[in-house]
């Protein structure tokens, strides 16, 4: 039985937490940030056609902002971004959210420190996923950013929260903010959406370099102590403090 629409209006028509209230400015900011970050996926060559997506948790709310499904990157605007609650249900926006929304929402619900999630089918990383192989930590840039190998997770069907489940299960116990999903692509997480985009860029860069290295001969893993030292230095000391 469908509820009486007068008694139980469509979620988008209900007191819209994305348009009014204390979270409104945070939602607007997240819409702008997420729209802009999609351009980074294109600029860094991580996506083809409309594949790939970025989302952000809206600070101070139980909301996320994500790309609309199947819209060309050149046409994305802050206004076209979709606001959903953390169960993945749309609460604001005209368009349908990305088909990966339920998985993004699952990640936010189960990883409270995560403020941004990115998904791509970037070529080199996905070639490792196609083989079902983790990317071994054989270069300092990987120790810095990922603190070890980039792990491989199981295959999961698209559309529900199974991918989110696979991401959370694989990343727990890893320092890596990136996971390869078998036969599919890459998910990355970060404290912010920008951090997650950075991880996606670095993951593809590492996937390419390690692939090329292996074409020329055997890979030499970095010793665990060296990886720990590099990771600590990069996370705690590198850059402007
Ligand atoms: Zn995908």
Secondary-structure topology with pairs:
Elements: H1 24-43, E1 53-58, E2 63-66, E3 82-85, E4 90-92, H2 101-110, E5 116-120, H3 123-131, H4 140-146, E6 152-153, H5 162-171, E7 178-181, E8 185-190, H6 193-216, H7 224-236
Parallel strand pairs: 6-7
Antiparallel strand pairs: 1-2, 1-5, 2-3, 3-4, 5-8, 7-8
Helix pairs in contact: 1-6, 2-5, 3-6, 4-6, 4-7
If strands are numbered along the chain, what order do they take across the biggest sheet?
4-3-2-1-5-8-7-6
Biggest sheet: strands, sense, closure? 8 strands, mixed
Helix content: 25-40%
Bound molecules: zinc ion
For the record, give the distance between the C-alpha atoms at the N and C termini, rounded to a whole number: 58 Å
Percentage of β-strand residues: 5-15%
Poorly predicted runs of 5 or more residues: 1-14
Shape: globular
- What is the residue-mean pLDDT, rounded to a whole number? 92
**Which H/E pattern describes the elements?**
HEEEEHEHHEHEEHH
| Alpha carbon gyration radius | 19 Å
Number of strands: 8
Query: Helix count, per DSSP?
Result: 7
| Structural class assignment | alpha+beta
């Amino acid at each position: 039985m469908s509820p009486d629409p007068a008694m139980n209006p469509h979620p988008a028509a209900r007191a819209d937490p994305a348009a009014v209230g204390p979270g409104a400015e945070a939602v607007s900011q997240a819409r702008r940030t997420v729209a802009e970050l999609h351009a980074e996926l294109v600029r860094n060559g991580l996506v083809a056609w409309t594949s790939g997506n970025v989302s952000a948790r809206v600070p101070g709310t139980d909301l996320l902002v994500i790309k609309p499904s199947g819209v060309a990157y050149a046409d994305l605007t802050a206004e076209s971004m979709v606001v959903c609650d953390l169960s993945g249900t749309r609460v604001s926006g005209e368009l349908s959210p990305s088909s990966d929304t339920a998985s993004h929402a699952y990640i936010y619900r189960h990883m409270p420190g995560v403020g941004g999630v990115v998904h791509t089918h970037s070529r080199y990383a996905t070639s490792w996923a196609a083989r079902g192989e983790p990317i071994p930590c054989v270069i300092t840039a990987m120790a810095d950013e990922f603190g070890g190998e980039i792990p491989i997770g199981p295959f999961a069907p698209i559309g529900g929260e199974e991918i989110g489940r696979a991401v959370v299960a694989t990343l727990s116990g890893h320092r890596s903010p990136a996971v390869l999903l078998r036969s599919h692509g890459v998910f990355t997480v970060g404290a912010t959406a920008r951090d997650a985009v950075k991880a996606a860029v670095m993951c593809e860069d590492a996937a390419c370099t390690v692939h090329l290295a292996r074409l020329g001969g055997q890979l030499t893993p970095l010793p665990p102590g060296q990886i720990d030292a590099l990771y600590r230095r990069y996370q705690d000391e590198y850059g402007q403090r």
